[in-house]
C-alpha cells in the first residue's frame, strides 16, 4: 500500500522508515555511485530530510520499504534552486503550486508495479492539494521509464553527455494524465484515494456535516 | 471573469498596503468577493509572537485566547509543520476537547466547513490562512474544488505582505526578477505570443512557462496578465 508520511511522523513507522533510508543508501551510493552521506547504520540522508518533507512510500506486505520519493514545496529550500539552478539559466523556481520531487528510490526486491504506484502517489498529491506542477532533476535514462509510467516531464534544461546527462523536468497535472497513470499502475483511482485518505484523514467519519 | 478582474484589483491594493488596518480591509474584500462567511490570516513568528487579521468576531478571538484553544484546535495540530492545504473534514475532531471546541466555535459564528493553507516561512515562521463557511458538504466541496488554487495563492500573498512587517527583512530583494524573467515579461508585455517569446529567447515554451510562473509568484499576481501589469507598475519592465 501507499503511505504519505511527513518526516516528523516517520517515528511511528520506524521499520518502514529505516528500510527506506537503507534502500536509499543502496540505490544512490552502492548502485549509482553518488556522493551521498551514509551513516553508521547504513542509512542515507541529506539536509532536505531535516526540513520535514513529505514522503510517499510503498509499503510491502511484510511492512518493509518497496520504494519512495520525497516532496517539498519550491517556496522553501529545494535542490532545483540550491544545487541545480544552472539547469534553469539561474532562475529560481518558486511557487506554492510547484513542488519538488527528489530521491525517487526503488528497493532491490521491489516488484515491477512499485514504480507505477509511486507515480500514482505523486499525481494523487497533485490532484488533492492543487499542485499544478512537480519539478525535479533526473538521469537521462529515466525519460523512457517516465514515459512507460504515463508521466513524462517537459525537459527545462540539461547538462552533461551520455551516461552523465542530467535534466531538469517539469511534470504537469491533468485529470487525463492522472487516469492514465492509474491505469498503467494497475490501481483504481478509488483504491488510490483510499490510501491517500488513510494517511491524510477520511472525510466521511467526521462530525462536521450539518446533517450530523 | 468579472470576479477575476476584481480579485486583480484587490491584489493591487494589497501590494501597496503597509498597515494592519489595510490588510484587515483587504481580507474583508476578498471574503466578500468569494461570498463566504470568514477568512482569517494568522501568523506566528520565530520569536513566538502572534499576529492576525480577518473576519472572526472579536468575541471569538478573545474566547480562543482566554481558553487557550490553540492547544486543542485540530486545525492547528493538523497544519503545524505541514505544507499541504487542509480541509477541516480530514482532521480528527473525535476527542472530547476537540468536540467542545467545535461547539464553541460554531456558537461564535465560525463555519461548520473550513479550508486552511499552512505556510512555512523563513526562520521558523508559521502562518495559516483559513477560509470558513456554513454550508453542506456538497456545496463546500464544489467551492474548494473551484477556489483551492486562488486560496493557496491568497495565503502566500498575505503571508508575503505580513513578512514585510518584520523589520530586518529586505523583501524587495527576494522578489527581484531574474534577467531571463525580465526578458520574458517584457516581450509578453509587448504583445508577443508565448511561441514568439520562446523563439526570441531561444528557449522552449516549457522553459518559458517556468519563467512566467516564477515571475507571477514573485509579483504577487493571480495570472500572467496581472503579473505583466504589476511588473510595469513597479517599473521592473519598460515597454
From TrEMBL, chain A:
It holds the Pfam family Autoind_synth. GO terms for molecular function: N-acyl homoserine lactone synthase activity. InterPro entries: Acyl_CoA_acyltransferase, Autoind_synthase. Its EC number is 2.3.1.184. It is an enzyme of class 2 (transferase). One of its GO terms (biological process) is quorum sensing. Keywords: Autoinducer synthesis, Quorum sensing, S-adenosyl-L-methionine, Transferase. SUPFAM superfamilies: Acyl-CoA N-acyltransferases (Nat). Belongs to the autoinducer synthase family. This is Acyl-homoserine-lactone synthase. It comes from Parasedimentitalea huanghaiensis.
UniProtKB/TrEMBL annotation, chain B:
GO terms for biological process: regulation of DNA-templated transcription. InterPro entries: Sig_transdc_resp-reg_C-effctor, TF_LuxR_autoind-bd_dom, TF_LuxR_autoind-bd_dom_sf, Tscrpt_reg_LuxR_C, WH-like_DNA-bd_sf. Residues 170-235 form the HTH luxR-type domain. It comes from the Bacteria. GO terms for molecular function: DNA binding. Keywords: DNA-binding, Transcription, Transcription regulation. SUPFAM superfamilies: C-terminal effector domain of the bipartite response regulators, Pheromone-binding domain of LuxR-like quorum-sensing transcription factors. This is LuxR family transcriptional regulator. It comes from Parasedimentitalea huanghaiensis.
